[in-house]
Amino acid sequence: MKSQIKQLHQQLVNKDISCTALIQERLNALKANTNNTVNSLLDTLALDLAAKVDAKIANGDTIGLLEGIPFGIKDVYMVQGTYTTASSDLLKKYKSAYTATAIQKLLDAGAIPLVKENCDSFGHGSSSENTIFGAVKNANNPNLVGGGSSGGSAVNVAKDYTVFSIGGDTGGSVRQPAGYNNVYGLKPTYGRISRFGLMAYASSTDCVGPIAKSVEDIRIVLNVMSGKDGKDQTTYASTEISEESLSNSKDIKTVGYFKNFIESEAIDPKIKADFLATIEKIKAKGIEVKELDFFKSDILVSTYYTLAMAETASNLSRLDGSNYGNRIDDKNLKESYAVTRSENFSEETKRRIVGGNQVLSQGFSDEIYLKGLALRDSISENFENDFKEVDIILSPVTPGTPPKIGDSLKDPHAMYLSDAYTVGFSLGQLPTLTAPQGTETGVQITAARNNDELVLKFANFLKDTI
Ligand code: GLN
After folding, report:
1. Closest residue (by CA) to atom 5 of ligand 1?
2. What average pLDDT does the chain have?
3. What tens digit of pLDDT does each residue of 82-127 get?
4. Residue 199: inside a domain, yes or no?
5. Which 8-state DSSP code applies to residue 77?
6. What is the count of structural domains for the chain?
7. 109 and 75 in contact (C-beta within 8 Å)?
8. Which domain range does residue 154 map to?
9. Residues contacting residue 42 through CB under 8 Å, at least 6 positions apart
10. With 80 as the cut, is the pLDDT of residue 288 above it?
């Protein structure tokens, strides 16, 4: 798939299409869609912006590459004046007071936001069923889940309702739905893109991540959003990734994969066979492939969920109805907090708040939370050693194929285990991309910290190889 951004840009410049017609067509498709991808449409704003782009073109002014390009935003990003619900009852009527840095950069480049997209509430989930807006349905089969938590975003891209969408990835929420709907989804190195204005789930792994249909579109959008931001002290300055640099994959000489991921009993036999066939094709291209040792999936999943629950319990403590959201009054302040939170948070979110407060509490934190932190350090160390030996780590995105709608809600533990292959890379804060190839739910390409360019390079190579 070629860059849709470039193709649409050319059509706009050549006046083959008007921006207003382009935006109207996509808005209509979003409005009519039956996959439950939309929390709110930004139609007035989008059409206003489109008219401005058309006026510029009519005037003979040059337009930037992203000017007039329609995109979607997971409903956990602040966009001033728009509803930002996190798919929750608590924030159902909350309107953002400011705009997230990453989104502001896209707006400054002229991209046009169409929609706030359905997702698991506060990013809690792997299926986009934990939402007050109805389960997101998979782009390929409406009986299956759209994946999560950025399910609405991945489905919108897959269905061509948006040219790209901005998801959020804490433990796999961009990569997994990208895999389930066969599109590209990048979780950049932690800190490459500012989190300011992204509703906090687990602050130590939260990442802003683009979803699109080509490596080139991922590159374009990543470059625009990246950079140091005084409002997020974990950000760093990165260099732009050029298009030319991605066409040369000669510096990728060694690829590794985790033996225990592939030998795990939980992996679907077809995903396993397809992944191993992909490895053979890579070898046939003269790349050396090494098997690597890694932590067991259940250790990765429990470490991730211990830390993610602790952080979300802490982050969500501010949502008590006094400053934001749907306050429910009761006989005194304490009761008001309790009833506001128990009525307005979903079962899954409450499970995480309770679990998180438990692992942080006196008597438990040494045994559980601090152990989780220590394990995270060991996981990072393991990655550091791996990247002394290999340039890229390749893995499946998920052990299984998308579940049927309803199944994950019945068995949250099984849902947590479905994150087995994505959460480790989040804990390592590494750049990692789902490419829609190699297995039914894609393959995951990971490089060392700050090496996002290498990830995209390998994706380009893979696209022509398998
Ligand atoms: N499924 C994982 C979770 O529920 C990841 C979610 C995410 O990345 N936001 O925590």
Report:
1. 171
2. 97
3. 999 999 999 999 999 999 999 999 999 999 999 999 999 999 999 9
4. yes
5. B
6. 1
7. no
8. 4-245
9. 79, 82, 113, 114, 115, 116
10. yes
How much is the average pLDDT of 199-208?
98
- The verdict on whether 173 is a catalytic residue reads yes
**Does residue 247 contact residue 387 with C-beta atoms inside 8 Å?**
no
Residue 150 sits in a domain whose CATH number is 3.90.1300.10
Write out residues with Cβ below 6 Å of ligand 1.
123-126, 149, 169-173, 201, 308, 419
| Amino acid (1-letter code) at residue 84 | T
Instruction: Give the burial class of 360: count Cβ atoms within 10 A of its Cβ; 0-12 exposed, 13-18 middle, 19 or more buried.
Output: middle
At 159-192, the pLDDT tens digits run 999 999 999 999 999 999 999 999 999 999 999 9
Question: For residues 376 and 304, what is the distance between their CA atoms, to the nearest angstrom?
Answer: 8
- Identify the active-site residue in 18, 126, 149, 418: 149
Place of tokens 């009525």: 343
According to the model, what pLDDT value does residue 251 have?
Answer: 85
pLDDT digits (tens, 9 = 90+) for 241-270: 999 999 988 889 999 999 999 999 999 999
Tokens representing 389? Answer: 């030996």
404 is a domain residue: no
Please tell me the distance between residue 329's alpha carbon and the centre of ligand 1 in angstroms: 31
d(CA 164, CA 151): 13
The alpha carbon of 347 and the centre of ligand 1 are apart by a number of angstroms equal to 15
Rounded distance, CA 305 to CA 410, Å? 18
**pTM greater than 0.90:** yes
User: Is residue 413 domain-resident?
Assistant: no
128 given a catalytic annotation: no
Q: Could you confirm whether 238 is annotated as catalytic?
A: no
Q: What are 74's strand-pairing partners?
A: 117
In a domain, 378, yes or no: no
Name the band, by pLDDT with cuts 50, 70 and 90, for residue 466. Answer: confident
Sign of the four-CA dihedral 17, 19, 25, 29: positive
Ligand 1, pocket-test mutation among 300, 419, 426, most atoms within 8 A of CB: 419
* Interatomic CA distance for residues 100 and 169, integer angstroms: 15
Q: Which residues contact 179 (CB under 8 A, 6 or more apart)?
A: 147, 185, 397, 398, 434, 436, 441, 442, 444
**pLDDT for the residue numbered 1:** 72
Query: C-alpha dihedral over 425, 426, 429, 430, to 10 degrees?
Result: 40
Residue from 3, 126, 173, 194 carrying the catalytic annotation: 173
Orientation angle between helical segments 297-315 and 347-360, nearest 10 degrees: 90
Model pLDDT, residue 324: 87
Atom of ligand 1 nearest to the CA of 124: 4
| Spacing, Cα 65 to ligand 1 middle (Å) | 32
pLDDT of residue 249: 83
